[in-house]
Every structure is written in structure tokens, then in C-alpha cells.
Amino acid sequence: MQELLMLAASYLRGLFMNCRRCGKPLPNNSVACKFCGMLMGQDQLNFQRRMQENEEKRIQLLSEKYGVDTTPEYRNKKENKLLGAIFIGIILLILIIITIIVNVMN
Ligand SMILES: [Zn+2]
Fold first, then answer.
1. What's the 54 CA to ligand 1 centre distance in angstroms?
2. Domain map of the chain by residue range?
3. Which residue, among 53, 82, 77, 52, has the nearest Cα to 65 in the 3D structure?
4. What pLDDT does 12 receive?
């Protein structure tokens, strides 16, 4: 579950973090395209920051609850599964919104 979540998150990030001018994939922490120099949009930067904050919050939460050593047991906790389901739901929602936006722009 946790792995799937990470995969979905990184896929979404990769999908979103493409240059608006040349369409090349960009690193998650980049501000401008390294291929053509196009600056990233404010919404893309906001998205980056939000993803980073979510990740930090999640890591903090996990380390507070289970100690710095993240043992495999925490994956079986019910609340984590619920949290993961909610997160996946949010990701899917964002994905749908992005798809709609891209369709409208084309
Ligand atoms: Zn570019």
C-alpha cells in the first residue's frame, strides 16, 4: 500500500512536472526548464511545495508515532490504510482535474 502510494505520488508529480513550452520532464525541485529556460508556472511551484510539505508531514507523523526507526509493522496499521486511501483519492481527484484542464487547453 505504502509503495503504491509513493508510486502514484511520484507518477503524478512526474506527469505534472513537464515544461510548458517544450514538454520535457523536469526534476521535482526545479524552478526553470533546463532545456529551454522556460520558468515553471506558479501553480506548478505551489504544487511542488505542497507535495514536499505533505511528505515532510507524513515522515514527521510516522517518526513521532513509531520512532525514527520505521519498522515494517506500521504498514499493517489500520489508520495508515485509511490515510493512504484518502491520499489516493486526493491524487485521483487532482489527476482528473489536470486531465480536464489539459483537454480544455487543447
Ligand atoms: Zn522547456
1. 27
2. 2-105
3. 77
4. 64
